[in-house]
Every structure is written in structure tokens, then in C-alpha cells.
Amino acid sequence: MSTPDDALLTRAAACLDGGGTLLLPTDTVLGLAARADRPAAVARIFALKDRPAEKNLPVMVADAAQLTAIGALVDDTVARLIASPFCPGPLTIALALDPARAPDWLAGRDELAFRIPDDALLLALIARTGPLTVTSANRSGQPTPAGTEGALAQLTGAPDMVIAGRARGTTPSTLVNCRHSPARIERQGALSPADLAPYMGGVA
What we know:
Layout: H1 6-17, E1 22-24, E2 31-35, H2 39-49, E3 59-60, H3 64-69, H4 76-82, E4 91-96, E5 111-115, H5 120-129, E6 132-136, H6 148-154, E7 161-162, E8 174-177, E9 184-187, H7 193-200
Helix pairs in contact: 1-5
């Protein structure tokens, strides 16, 4: 991974810390990001995407320590997937939460979908800001554009900051729900069942 530009990183972190929304390329598709603990910013992402409010957004963390700090329950399957070659990478994992340890912004939630991105800028941002809500930069129900200009044309408005560019991929992450036994692939994306089977003990 390349080293992120310090000035860009500082501006992006300031935007997010101030409750702003950020459009940026990721290691999968283009993303819309906000600090997970800024409710108004997260609500702005829903509005930009015209996304139904009942559809929870995934979270990005920098490492497993950040994950357990927000009350995530890391069982053996989750631990194997985190230790796999696909994390950091295009793997999103849904797991259970301990409500006694979860922060206020996860109040009422018993499940969280998270990803550790394989992207130097995103990892550095998350290390500074804490967990980020990051979702694909498309209008709900529409394909995600490859470049920022296409995303801006599709969204309902403009994010507070734009890091122009193209995503490194065109396929979203694969989503594995580890609350099922056995774990179940609920969205097949960049990773196939065959890719993940050695780390899941079988795929449902």
C-alpha cells in the first residue's frame, strides 16, 4: 500500500471530525464515509443515497482491536476470517454485538457488518477518527459509478468533501453473516464461496 498524503489525510479527518461526509475511492467501489458516532452525518449519507432508513449501514474499522472496543463478539469463525488473506480486503463480516459494551451510536442494534479496508488512506483515517460508516457511493438501487463525477451526478446532493478518483475495483465486497451456524454468504461480491470455504469450515 502507498503512503497517504499527510495534508489530504488531515483535511479528510477534519471534515469527518466536524460531522461532514466524504466521497472517496476505496479498494472496492467508491465510498461515502462519515464518522459512525456522528448521527447527523450518518443521516446525511442516507439522504445522499436516498436509502431506506431501516437498512443499516456497514462500518469500517482499522483493526480487530477497534472492533472489539465497540462491543463486537468475535467468535472462532469471525477470528478465522479476520486472519484470512482477504482481511484487510473485500470481505464484509456481520456479527453479533454485546449491548453492554456497545457505544451509544449502536444502541438498539444486535448486529453489525464491518470491513477492514485494504487502503492506506482509509486505514489512516480510521486510525485517527475511530470507526467510519462507509457505504457505496450510489443512489439506492443503482450501480455504483466507477468515478467520482458519475457518483456526484447520481447522488441527491454533494458530500462535504470529495477526494476525486476512481475506485480500484468495480465489484463490492462479499458479505458473510457469522450469526448463522454455519456462517452464510449473504452477498457474493469480489470473493467466491471457494475463496472463503477454507476459513469458514464450509459455506452455506
